């Protein structure tokens, strides 16, 4: 068939529209073309397999519109949607290098402006709340300390609110950046975080409620670990016995990320080891 | 396996997470459950088949966030996204009853407050512009006029702008509701609409540009046809020779919806026949 007698694009029926839409995109790279083609195939496949009605389609488009309406600089309903549908966790698990600590959801509460604090810092405003010592090290795949590692951590207070959400707290409480010491060690004093509900007053909350699901997340520390020459790690640390471990609204819990706090000289202690892999290796994994 | 020794939900890996997410939704109806399960399968399938990276996933979530940012009461970027990905047309075609005039995209410019005008009305403000007489009838599947039929039509002016977009035009120009006469006939005088670009200054426009696609749509009349006891029809009428017929940005053109304007007593004439099917039949189709 030559270009001259190629059927015009308006000769469209359910059997050829998916191919025509895919063909309409050129895209600059093979990867972009692949992603677009796959996206269109899955979207149309979803409509085809379910014989999606106009009414259902309009509801779905309206749902996304409402997600947009409730989103703002501090709230990303689309990220939350990805989280509660397990897509974020799926990508966390599949785009993960062998040999590194398992990753977990970044979540919507990361703030990049956390203050840098020295090793040993107390993150509790006014030193209030039952202290817990968190200490750990950042190792490479061979178990050697990584020089120049840096942590960026954030957590809720005991009431389940992040400082960025709670007007009663200084904005920079319970979060910090910290350069590890020469042995790639870090430590800080904080409180145990509390469990909390993901924002459930928007369309994603409506979906959770309609689905008979809980909006609760188990308590956790968030960590982002950065080190020169190594692949960055975003993960979470959960606690044994937390009643929400099995029903995390965003599917972030991994067995290897659950720890049991210990006691040392009468103080609660959480001991952590993070493993990073070289940046180059991660692409092959 | 009993409930007691069912593995906890945090025993999650890429091989079981899709099923766990699906199982987490109960939903009230079997249809809702089916749609959710299919949606989750396709979303995860998209990520799995393409080995979606974190960076790509974050771009996709950010794309939807930007769609929300640019949307407002007068602009629905999610509807536009559905349109340019051919999803709207797919549903138009597959959720369509046998025997009726083919449907086509509603588009984002429908305004439900068009004034009711009598048969024969002139929709041109001040009677300006080259007149074209549009007339037609609304028939049932057997070819009989449907009593009580009503049309709701909207189109651009010759410059490709809808009256709702163009401050130089009265807000209600080139659109109307009209009760058909006893023979289910309607007619009005208007101008030929112009081709136009879908809004391409937002994320969907970025996608069109990145894909080497055009944002242009061929010129068209929009019609919504309503009649008691019959399934409502939303469709578009296109014109032979329009240079954009083959590359409509939203895949709305159907061969059966392209007409060739005629001449009658020195005036342009567009003669249309719309066919509706009974509301009850449409569910079985």
From TrEMBL, chains A, B:
Similarity annotation: Belongs to the intradiol ring-cleavage dioxygenase family.
Coiled coil: none
Cofactor(s) for this UniProt protein: Fe(3+)
Protein name: 6-chlorohydroxyquinol-1,2-dioxygenase
Family matches, as SUPFAM superfamilies: Aromatic compound dioxygenase (SSF49482)
A Pfam family annotated for this UniProt entry: Dioxygenase_C
InterPro entries in alphabetical order: Catechol_dOase_N, Intradiol_dOase_C, Intradiol_dOase_core, Intradiol_RC_Dioxygenase
GO BP terms, alphabetized: catechol-containing compound metabolic process
Native species: Acidisoma cellulosilyticum
Keyword Isomerase: no
Keyword terms of this UniProt record: Dioxygenase, Iron, Metal-binding, Oxidoreductase
Cross-referenced Gene3D superfamilies: Aromatic compound dioxygenase (2.60.130.10)
Keyword Ligase included in the entry's annotation: no
TM helices/strands, residue ranges: none
Domain Intradiol ring-cleavage dioxygenases stretches: 134-162
GO molecular-function term, one example from the UniProt record: ferric iron binding
Taxonomy, superkingdom: Bacteria
Source species taxonomy: Bacteria, Pseudomonadati, Pseudomonadota, Alphaproteobacteria, Acetobacterales
